[in-house]
Amino acid sequence: MLSEALSAEGRSDPIELIEIKDEADIQRWKFIGSPTIRFNGIDPFDQGTSNLGMECRVFKTADGLIGWPTRAMLVEALKRMTR
Predict the structure, then answer these.
(1) Which pLDDT tens digit goes with each residue over 56-77?
(2) Could you tell me the pTM of the whole model?
(3) CA atoms of 66 and 58, how far apart (whole Å)
């Protein structure tokens, strides 16, 4: 989905996958759940109310809560983060 959003914006930024295995990784990466997507280190979907931990995240969409951001949400986040 992220690759599609990048392509839609004419971008080819590399995507780095980071495996979170334990509490040390959670603390090191300030991990607030899966999936966490960051652009230049910033999570555009963090609403400041999340706790660090090995949890699943949900994202609010027009169709309700789902377990990942939609392509449209990612495109919008890319636009916001690169203004």
Answers:
(1) 999 999 899 999 999 999 999 9
(2) 0.83
(3) 5
